[in-house]
Amino acid sequence: MNTATLTETTDAKTAQFYSDVIDGLKSTPKRLQSKYFYDANGDKIFQELMNCEEYYPTNCELEIFSKKTAELAAAIAGDGGPFDLIELGAGDAMKSAYLLRYLLEQGVDFTYMPIDISDNVICYLNETLPQTLPGLQIIGLNGEYFNMLEEAERLSTRRKVVMFLGSNVGNMPVPEAIGFIKELNRHLSPGDMLLIGIDLKKSPKTVLAAYNDKEGITKRFNLNLLLRINKELNANFNVEHFDHYATYDPETGACKSYLVSTEAQTVHIGNEVIRFEKDEYIFMEISQKFTIAETEQMALEANFTPVRELFDSKKWFMDAVWLA
Ligand code: AVI
């Protein structure tokens, strides 16, 4: 990509970010989109979060990938023929690496296609994975999920297994999540599969603690979006004047995060002025939790058939294989 195109892309991304932020903060109630948490600083804070005592989902899914690798591999094997293993939002591929290593050891013919919105992530994976996993065929795809899935379809006609891990599906309200999975299904053919990581309903105290950690990492994670807005959109949020508040409703399974304005204040973002009442909140993120039955219902509504469910030892997290 030449420099001109790169600049254009960055400008378009910033324009979209600005319009989403202004739309969200002019709505009632105010809201921001959690997909914007992940700038370079947000990525670092999320890494800290994944290592903190209360945030259990990463360790639970890591346990499934490290201890039940053979079962996972068998569940996605299909008829044993070659396939493409496509990962949406691959990140550092730490969990998937267990499965990739196992498949290589078994001599399975597959190509790993990580998709990520961050070009840093894709460059890192393209460079490092073939070194740590000799013999790995990898094609990294940098861009939006569905655009890159179409790119994967253009590149190969082999059977597809799509991985969507980490309970990222929970960061959408349920109707949107079903719409997203339906759209995924439209990009797949009969025999293709989805390997999806889903956080399950459990003790409400355990869930709430994971999103309200003692050290305040989740608070920093949320406030970082205000700092990103300051930096990228010429705004003047004072993060000292916002507090983090998390709730979990065990009935619906919705865990929600908010930033609450601790005083009446005015914030400038570019040419826009946003007013906050004291105690007015910004809705920041949903992290939806499910029962097993709810996930099966979701699969069926999105035209998939659930074929295998694997759990960690506490049964707090599930990796399910759904057939298209
Ligand atoms: C990425 N996603 C699945 C995380 C979650 O658990 O909802 C993001 C997160 N937000 C606060 N803590 C972690």
UniProtKB/TrEMBL annotation:
Any one GO MF annotation of this record: methyltransferase activity
Cleaved signal peptide residues: none
Keywords associated with the record: Methyltransferase, Transferase
Pfam families (alphabetical): Methyltransf_33
GO BP annotations, alphabetical order: methylation
UniProt entry tagged with the keyword Methyltransferase: yes
Keyword set includes Transferase: yes
Alphabetical list of InterPro entries matching this protein: EgtD_Methyltrsf_superfamily, MeTrfase_dom, MeTrfase_EgtD-like, SAM-dependent_MTases_sf
Domain Histidine-specific methyltransferase SAM-dependent: 18-321
Protein's name according to its UniProt entry: Dimethylhistidine N-methyltransferase
Source organism: Mucilaginibacter auburnensis
